[in-house]
Amino acid sequence: MPRRSGRRDAYISGVIVAIDSTSRANGPRVSAETMRSVLHLLAAAAIGSAVAVAVAHPLNPRQGGGGGNTTIECAPIPSPFPTWQQLPQQSTLPDPFLPLQYTTPDNAQDVMAGRGEGRVRTPEEWYQCRQPEIVRMLQEYQYGYYPDHSQETVEATRSGNTLNIAVTAGGKRGQFRATVTLPSGASASKPAPVVINIGGMQNQAYLSAGIAVAQFDYTSVSPDSNAKTGAFWSIYNGRDIGVLTAWAWGFHRTLDAINMTVPEIDAGRVGVTGCSRLGKAALAAGLFDTRITLTMPMSSGVQGMGPYRYYTMSGQGENLENSKQGAGWWTNSKLGAFVNHSENLPYDAHTIAAAIAPRALVIDQGTGDQFVNSKGTAVVVYPAAKVVYDWLGAGDKIAISVRGGGHCDMSGFTSILPYVQKIFFGTETTKDYNDLGSYGSPVTTAFPWGTAVPGA
Ligand SMILES: *[C@@H]1O[C@H](CO)[C@@H](O)[C@H](O)[C@H]1NC(C)=O
Ligand SMILES: *[C@@H]1O[C@H](CO)[C@@H](O)[C@H](O)[C@H]1NC(C)=O
Ligand SMILES: *[C@@H]1O[C@H](CO)[C@@H](O)[C@H](O)[C@H]1NC(C)=O
């Protein structure tokens, strides 16, 4: 069955082509994500009960990438995206270095082994081409498309430690609240980093470490159901977007409000966390907003740091089928087409993690937590993602804590705290965050491309 052959032929055989700025404008170069826009907040932060209004301008962080004279030309992103039938069935974790254009069924063995034609070759190409492609692909197949933040106006008021957040877009308005708890000594002249969480965390250990804690009521952003109520759906009802993405948006708008109204918090050092389904949301929050310094998914399972493949590794794993059946609203409807065909997905959990690089990611898993397949996260997903982090020269920005205990055990928060302190304060720790604990060693056969990284 010939497929996407036109597009493939249209693409020059080399992956990297140096072109001048004239041909660049006309070439098939992929435009990067408009959703990755950066907020320019006009109003200065104010203490007490003040109002600040943010006006967003789109800014493409990839424009001008590639460093001056030479521009990298990206493999075009297939349009429309391939269906599951047009993708190779891959029993091992897909090669993160292979653009979607080249992820074809006619060479499945090469694709799985990291021998596919057209892999990205350099970190520059990763950041300019493949990383934005992954973010787009994940929205297409799983999350739904993140709303264009440049079309939103965010207003925030602060009353004590409560933030009232209102977002307006397209004449529609959604509102929700967040609370902040400051560590002692935090001030506008000595602002503290913050961890934004949903569903609760171990506040005191973090406050004692000089880290502020913020929380929003995620159900007021979107309920954990098909009901399209809450702040997010007040604006975006009707769109094929998963609830994980709605919650991620809640993290981001909370950060906007903190930046506008809480000068005691340093909005440049931000962690996001949650456990289980809320850990899946925290992962999405880290993926979709480069302002997030540290992503902290706890016991997150499938659509978090649990793999779609290898879900039997812990004996009773969450998988695509049971997650889509039990809580199909977490993701978009398109993911439903892959039910019973998860091995045709051109990504897995390690791909999500890799797309966050070089920003920091720390993964919590409990050995008593079979349902979210802690073992699979530890021996398959984590080491596969670390191959990419290492290749990008950011190997110390990905970490895992394999602890005892079960699902959402609060000890997970203290277990990762030394790593959080390392990221926020540069404090060294002797704890080994590459240690898979009782799970032992990585299962390298799950990512055969790991021994064939580009340029090696
Ligand atoms: C905070 O707001 C300022 C403008 O007031 C903006 O330049 C900065 O990028 C914002 N930071 C974050 C983390 O949103
Ligand atoms: C542009 O090219 C010139 C000449 O090859 C080189 O000296 C310079 O470093 C390049 N600039 C960048 C930003 O790559
Ligand atoms: C998936 O497979 C199961 C078991 O064979 C079947 O009952 C179910 O209908 C299938 N679902 C889809 C969407 O194909």
SSE map:
Layout lengths: L4 H6 L10 H6 L11 E4 L9 E7 L50 H6 L9 H21 L9 E7 L2 E8 L2 E10 L10 E6 L5 H6 L3 E5 L1 H4 L9 H6 L6 H19 L3 E11 L1 H12 L5 E5 L21 H8 L21 H8 L3 E7 L7 H18 L6 E6 L7 H15 L31
Parallel strand pairs: 6-7, 6-8, 8-9, 9-10, 10-11
Antiparallel strand pairs: 1-2, 2-3, 3-4, 4-5, 5-7
Helix pairs in contact: 4-11, 8-9, 11-12
Write up what this structure looks like:
The chain has 456 residues and is of the alpha/beta class. It has one domain (3-47, 146-451): 3-Layer(aba) Sandwich (Rossmann fold). It contains 13 helices and eleven strands. It has helices at 5-10, 21-26, 108-113, 123-143, 203-208, 218-221, 231-236, 243-261, 277-288, 320-327, 349-356, 374-391, 411-425; strands spanning 38-41, 51-57, 153-159, 162-169, 172-181, 192-197, 212-216, 265-275, 294-298, 360-366, 398-403. Strands 1-2-3-4-5-7-6-8-9-10-11 form an eleven-stranded mixed beta sheet, sandwiched between helices. Helix 4 (123-143) packs across helix 11 (349-356), helix 8 crosses helix 9 (277-288) and helix 11 packs across helix 12 (374-391). The longest helix is centred in the first third of the chain and has 21 residues, at 123-143. The radius of gyration is 21 Å and the shape is globular. Residues 1-66 have low confidence and may be disordered. It binds 2-acetamido-2-deoxy-beta-D-glucopyranose (3 copies). The chain crosses the membrane at residues 38-59. It catalyses: a 4-O-methyl-alpha-D-glucuronosyl ester derivative + H2O = 4-O-methyl-alpha-D-glucuronate derivative + an alcohol + H(+). Pfam families: GCE_fung (PF22244). Its EC number is 3.1.1.117. Keywords: Hydrolase, Lignin degradation, Membrane, Serine esterase, Signal, Transmembrane, Transmembrane helix.
